[in-house]
Amino acid sequence: MDKQDLEPEQSSPEEAAAGEKVLSRSTLLKTAGATGAGLLIGGMAGKAKAWTPASYNRALAKNRLAKGMVGGPTGFPGAQRYQYGPNTAAGRAIAGLRRLTNNGKKPLTLSWRIWNGAVGQLNVPFPKGAPAVSALLEKEAGVKIKFIQDTPDNNEQKNLQTLSTRDGSVHILQTQITDNGDYAEGKMLRNLDEFVAKYKPDWADPKWGYAGGATTVALMNKYNGSVYSVSFDGDYQVWVYRIDLFDNSQNQKDFKAKYGYDLTDFPKTWKEHDDVAEFFTRPDKQLYGSGDLKNPYWGYVNWMMRYVTAAAPNQHYFDTNAKPLINSAAGIRATQEHVRSLAWTYPDALSKSWPEQYAAMGAGQLAMASMFSNCTKFIPGNPSLDKGFGKYLRTALAPGRMVGGKLVRRSVIYFNAQFAVNAFSNSKLHEAAYLVLQWAGSGHIFTWMAGNPAGYFDPHGNAQFNDPLVRASYKPFGCDELKIIVPNTAPPIAGMRGANDYTASLDTNLQKALTKQITPAQAMANTAAAWEKTTNRYGRAKQARAIQAGLAAWPTGYKYG
Amino acid sequence: MAVPAIETEPRPRRPLKWPAGFGGRSEKTIAQLLVTPGQLLMLLIVAFPAGVAVYLAFTGYQPTSGYEWFDAYKDWTWFSNYWEALRSWGAFWTGGGFWMAMFRTAVVTVLGVSVELALGFALALLFVKSFRGRSLLTVVFLLPMMVVPAVTGFIFYMLFQTQGPVNGALTVLFHDWLHLTGHIQVPWLSDPNIALFSVILADIWQWTPLMFLILLSGLVALPEDQMNAARILGARPWHQFRYLILPMLWPIILIAVIIRSIEIFKIFDSAWLLTSGGPGDATTTISVYLYRETIANATRWGYGSAVAILVLVIVSLIAIPAIRPIEAAQEETIEELVGGEGAEVVVDVERAVEAEARV
């Protein structure tokens, strides 16, 4: 590793804090010569522009760290936004890593299992002139990352193999929020509390942390009150709708005539949503009111969004003794609505998944749909998806219900890429693996990463929602809406052992209700019975403790428009 | 200084001997000793995984339990996994559980293999005589078999969309040409009563060629003189088929049916890729059920092992009687070939071969 690469760390803390750089005579001469030559050429070409403070900053950022910064990307305009000082989460992480690598003299190599559709955000340089995230890490701290790519489906099996064979060859594992309980209890995930206390990540920081603060940290990173993984994603369900349909005066007139109230904006309640969906369902014109998924594995989240709004601030899935709460009026009503909504969805909704849904939305076949937040990143302007309707797409928080005079609106997150330290790997490298995650998942670096279109890790913090690169990618309206959606997001069934098992029972019974094999009431009764069996298998007391700890992950209600 | 050569008597060569440890042992013992390592290796390969499965089946082991599989005894449950699977009759009528998955698999097996046999046999009969372009067409008919099963799943996923090519073709036929119906929109993958048949259709498309190939090989190998004799004696095609082709081909048919039954019983790719075992449990065959219980939904490896053993026992109980007709057919064929004294002739031949070997 080049000695020059470690220059910021080698300078004294005072110098680093003041942002002063040691300038040698040769560097001064080289810079002066290059500047003179540049001015001469520019002047000769008649293209030299006025020397403004903004252009000075841009030029500065292109080449080196801004004043007071100890690390971060350089080489492109605006790079200083992602540079960090010594008293930031990224700064503390990089200082820790430098200590572990003896300032890069003893370089480390860590292996990192990651979804192949997301790795681009870590190993593809973005924007033009910037290094890749992984290259910057190697340059700053002497930590080389060896990516082991995998598909999301296969990754689950690989994790089970790691778990059953106690395989320590991979240092950083890819997981999901629903896995935290199982993998932590399986002792595959390293408890990170010790490192969190030592290096103080910025996850709950109002400026650089996750939107929703400590609640979102509990939802994404914690199991049973302890940190086991670090979020690199924001799989929030946002509702997408077409403003060309909503703003059409004829539609507004017809809607008012049929339902007796105005079609003004995205529906605020599920009742309004169902009216709007019914109104826009015109199969003869290849238009369907609501394209929310109903297929196995994915469709249940749309049931959840209806269910969790049945109480204020939240309708939970279990009580604190791990008794199911779904076999209730709230659960049955949500199921009835879920089944009824099939009438407004495109044909084959029970088997179609994300690819078909994104294509249908881009082709103007859907008036509304619940989608991942990257819909505004991937559809508009994408020739394979956008058939002229991308520019009409807008996003909103899911509808809700009036409960005790209050409107409760909730989105639900699920899946969500998490990374964790493999407890079976060499324990001497656990700290380094955690520090890599703290550094890459910090507000500074993750914001830079989230703007990179080479992968599908979505933003989850206000720093990202306000960032020009992210806003350019996810569209300004998409980012502004996420500021409201994230703090109003309820968890799926997560933060406990067997989360996938519970969810699968629910999913299967919802599928049966959707295909009229059983009634909504039977679906809830069957699911509750299956949940009880699962709870008894894992131990009720243990599950109850996890549920109680998981209450911290539920939103208490934030203001929305 | 040159050293004079010393002439000595040539030393008698010692006769070759078995190593000391083998001394006095018979050839049979030595042979047994030599094959023992290989046999032990085979035993390890076959018996070890089976032993692990039997062991885990008595436990409530999950990889998420926090201990390794060999410590699974910490959650020893005796026969409760078996009992849980066997008593799942209660869930039969709601479409869930072990027995319903077994029943669905049996339906897939019986329907799939029957149709594949009928189509494969019909095609084989068409292709047994030479005609222009036969070689090319044979290759074309065998192509589906060469397609990766996962790709077959995706192909049929697209074909079976409600607004996809299959319904489009049916609409052209029944609506546009015959004016019998409106636009046909069969929910091939979304209707629990139809989805299983969609899965079977995908399997039939892919594996009829195998049946065709096996039966064509059998037909081509039939003794031509007997067929010619039948024709000369005036046997009609149906009689040739009923009294000549079918009996002679019977062992081949049985083998083809058994091979396909064993294969189709494990059907997974098309069921998972077309419908993920749904809607609900509608296409949850036993392989999908096991995958759900051990990987996709839960990680119940103890229960999964018990179910796998139950399946093995049940399939063996069905397969053993099914294989007997092959043995009987083989004996019949030998008798037909060498007359009523077939068995004695075989024994005589074996004796002759042994005698020659001794010489």
Question: How would you describe this protein?
Answer:
The complex is a heterodimer of chains A (about 550) and B (about 350). In chain A, a hairpin with a 2-residue loop joins strand 4 and strand 5. In chain A, about 45% of the residues lie in helices and about 10% in strands. The radius of gyration of chain A is 25 Å and the shape is globular. Chain A folds into three domains: about 5-75, no CATH class; about 85-235 and about 415-490, 3-Layer(aba) Sandwich (D-Maltodextrin-Binding Protein, domain 2); about 235-410 and about 495-530, D-Maltodextrin-Binding Protein, domain 2 (3-Layer(aba) Sandwich). Chain A is an alpha/beta fold. Chain A starts with 6 loop residues before the first helix and ends in an 11-residue tail after the last helix. In chain A, the strands form six sheets. A four-stranded mixed β-sheet of chain A has the order 8-9-7-10. A three-stranded antiparallel β-sheet of chain A has the order 3-14-6. Chain B has about 350 residues and is mainly alpha-helical. Chain B has a domain at about 85-330: Orthogonal Bundle (MetI-like fold), CATH 1.10.3720. Chain B is built from 13 helices and no strands. The termini of chain B are far apart. The model of chain B has no long low-confidence stretch (mean pLDDT about 85). Chains A and B meet through helix 8, helix 9, helix 24 and helix 25 of A and helix 11 of B.
